[in-house]
Structures are given as C-alpha cells and as structure tokens.
Amino acid sequence: MVRWEPGARDRLRAAALELYASRGFDETTAADIAASVGLSERTFFRHFADKREVIFNGQDEFESAFVDRIAAAPEGSPMNVIANAVVGASDFFDTRQRDYSILRQSIIEANPSLRERELLKMTALAERMAAALRARGVAEPQASLAAQSGVTVFGVSFRLWLSPGEQRSLAEIERATLADLRSVTLEAAPAV
Amino acid sequence: MVRWEPGARDRLRAAALELYASRGFDETTAADIAASVGLSERTFFRHFADKREVIFNGQDEFESAFVDRIAAAPEGSPMNVIANAVVGASDFFDTRQRDYSILRQSIIEANPSLRERELLKMTALAERMAAALRARGVAEPQASLAAQSGVTVFGVSFRLWLSPGEQRSLAEIERATLADLRSVTLEAAPAV
C-alpha cells in the first residue's frame, strides 16, 4: 500500500502554503492539504511530521549555512567572521526563492504561534553561532555580541529583502545593513 | 468568604519560586503553592492568573522602564538614546533583587516553555523600543538596529550580572558591554 509518489513532497508543500495563506494556518488540516492535490493524509505524514514542518523544515541546513562558515573561516575578528558567514549564507536564499519567502513570511506573520517559532529559530541560530565562535577561542561577551549582531543584521536585511519593490540581492542588503550597524553602534556616546 | 490576606501575594510568590526551583515548574500546582503557605488555591488565583504569571508579571512595567526613557530622551543619536534608556532602566533591577533574579533565571533555564516566553519577552521589548525610536523620527533600518543592539546589550549584561562572584551593578556591566559592542562591530571589515 505504501507507494512513492513522485514529486509528492513539493506538491504537498505548494498546496499547504497556498491553503495556509488563503484559509489560515489553524483552519487548514493535513487532510485538506493532501486532498487538494489528490493525495491521502497518510501520504502527507510520510513527508512531514506535522503541519508546521512544511514551513520550518530545513532548520538544520539553515543553521549550518551560517555555522559551518564560522568554523571554516580564516583568522579574523569575531565580527568579521560573523559578517562573512551571514553574507555567505545568503546563498541559502537565492532570488528565485524570494516569492516563496514572501508567501511563507506572510503566513508566519498572520499566526502568533508560527511567529513565536520563527523568533525562537533566530535565537537558536544566535546561540549556535556564538558557540561556533567560542570554539574558535573567542571569549565572552564578544562571542555573544558578535553572534547576536549577526542575527540582527540577517533579520533586518531579510525583512528588507522581502519588501515590495526591493531589487537588491540579500547579500547586497546585508552588506549595507552591516555598514549601518557599524554607524549606529559607533554613535553611542558614553551612557549616563 | 473572600478575605484579603495581608502579604498573601508576596508569600505566594516566594513559595512558588521555591517550589518551582526544588520540584520543577511543571511538577508544581497552584494548589501546592497555596497550601505551602496555608492559603487556598482560590486565593492564589485572586493574585495570579496562572502559574506562569508569578514569574512573568510586571512585563508592562519592565518594558515601560525602557520605552518611557526613549520617549523622554533629549536629542541624540539613536544608539545614544537606546544606551541611556538601557542603563537608566537598570534601576528596575537593584542589587537587592539579584538573589531573586538568580533564582528566577534558574527556574526559567530549566523549563523550555518558560525559556521561550522569556525570549519572546525580549523580542517584544526590542519591537517596542524600535517603535519608540521611529516615533522620534528615526528611520529604518536604524531604529531596529539600535533597538535590537540595545536588547543584545541588556541580555548579555543581565546574564553577566547574575553570574557567580559578579560584584558590579547592572548599570556598570551595561556600560562595559556597550563599549564591547562598539569594539566588536567596528572590527567588521567589509564582507565578501
């Protein structure tokens, strides 16, 4: 009875995103998704552990795109290592993925529990990046400050990348945001 | 039947933290907490909406300690306004509160759902701080970069403040961390 459906995973994902966007994430069941592309609920669960996994799978690959670059980086200041990792990881989001990312983001923004999950994903990324810096001998608090600043740059840049009319690649936006971060933090006069 | 118990709220809070720490948050019921100080479960729920609220109440005052200072700040660069707000808000955590904060933190670290809530609290703070900067005419992405950097400085400093043997006040640590953040971000050479 267990047949392999060629392309089933991609069809299920596309159908899921469309239904999440049009009907709402909470209002869509796995059975709805499967039925909309002529597959069974059972087939859905062969490909995805649950409804959320359609949106959040690939988390390990996403984190590795950043963390592996930190581990493999040549000698450099902590923020230089982070900056190169963040800009390098933008390969993960090529321009063809922009429409998918816009749709995915709109689904996440519309649902508080998905939004929480996305925020926690960013925190997990910052923690793994800080650990990767410490493994290179970077002390605290420099490791956490550089890693969290890297996630700030990624998050701000990613949102800009998805904004209407934006023409630049994610890497270009990240380079500009890194320069903005330097200017912003430089302008902190001694605090009270 | 509804009597006002003098000091009940403080006694319930102290008992709750002790039980959360010794027995675990999930393993402690509101009835356990109330019984341990000779009060009824009903009294517990007159003071706290649920078990989590013992740990997370005061969120509005916490955020206001930062945001009100941003709104009231004199002219200054975005990061200067943020730095002064973060250091100023350290009043919220005076040294007498350190033991309470250490206990609270250990309870949160031991429980994934409490940890998530705490992380989301920090994101909410960053979003409110960015909005307060925009209300002063600060453009994006500068508002988000300054606000998120402020939360990074607060988070890193707060963790240091609670570490064993730390003698400095939270404000002193925050000033040092702000200087560290400036050094770290300055050292980002142009990215690939």
Molecular structure report:
Chains A, B: This is TetR family transcriptional regulator. Chains A, B: Residues 6-66 form the HTH tetR-type domain. Chains A, B: Residues 29-48 bind DNA. The structure is a homodimer of 192-residue chains. With 192 residues, the first copy, chain A, is mainly alpha-helical. The first copy, chain A, folds into 2 domains: 8-54, Arc Repressor Mutant, subunit A, CATH 1.10.10.60; 58-186, Tetracycline Repressor, domain 2 (Orthogonal Bundle), CATH 1.10.357. Chain A has 10 helices and no strands. The first copy, chain A, has helices at residues 8-23, 30-36, 41-47, 53-56, 59-72, 78-88, 98-109, 112-135, 142-161, 170-186. In chain A, helix 1 (8-23) crosses helix 7 (98-109) and helix 9 (142-161) crosses helix 10. The longest helix of chain A has 24 residues, at 112-135. Chain A is elongated. Chain A binds chain B through residues 76-80, 82-84, 86-88, 116, 119-120, 123, 141-142, 144-146, 148-149, 152-153, 155-156, 160, 174-175, 177-178, 180-182, 184-192, and chain B through 76-80, 82-84, 86-88, 116, 119-120, 123, 141-142, 144-146, 148-149, 152-153, 155-156, 160, 174-175, 177-178, 180-182, 184-192.
